[in-house]
Design brief:
alpha/beta, Rossmann fold, 5-stranded parallel sheet, globular
């Protein structure tokens, strides 16, 4: 089996994924990193030179490729489950257990305000109010997809170890 981590940007998918990979002795694959290596471009460069539609097409192709693997922690991009048939592919994957790492809007704003430069979708937002509105709108639009995950884990007020332990216990109770 593999664990698929789903959630909005800044929800901790990559950070929790690292800790979880250690705990379960699985390989961690961040879909964005995987995609960048395959394309030999950063996500920002892909968005600038080829556009979001191209990005979403290759993202789907690489997701389907990785869903065939086992014993991995797969950390998805925040928008990945919401495009094309990605969420259906995740839910129908034979060897995958999806977990939505749910964070509140204030926590996401706090985490993302200093990372805007590295995040193409929010790099243009100048104030916390704009960021809050943007995140709120996106979460509303994406919640339909995120909430289809096999399990939801709330991350607010918890440290990395506690969240990773909760994910590990959820996975182990289902598959061990």
């Amino acid at each position: 089996m593999s664990v698929i981590l789903i959630g909005y940007m800044g929800s901790g998918k990559s950070t929790i994924g690292k800790k979880l990979a250690e705990m379960l002795d699985f390989e961690l694959i961040d879909l964005d990193d995987y995609l960048q290596k395959k394309e030999n471009l950063t996500i920002s460069e892909i968005f600038k030179t080829k556009g979001e539609i191209y990005f979403r097409k290759i993202e789907q192709r690489y997701l389907e490729e990785l869903l065939k693997r086992t014993n991995i922690i797969l950390s998805l991009g925040g928008g990945t489950p919401c495009y094309g048939s990605n969420m259906d592919a995740i839910l129908n994957a034979q060897e995958a257990y999806s977990i939505y790492l749910r964070s509140s809007i204030p926590n996401l704003v706090k985490r993302l305000r200093s990372e805007k430069v590295q995040r193409p979708l929010i790099s243009h937002l100048e104030t916390d109010e704009e960021l809050t509105e943007f995140i709120g709108k996106h979460l509303f639009e994406r919640s339909f997809y995120y909430n289809q995950s096999n399990q939801t884990i709330h991350t607010d007020g918890k440290n990395i170890e506690a969240i990773a332990k909760e994910v590990s216990e959820a996975y182990n109770s289902k598959y061990k």
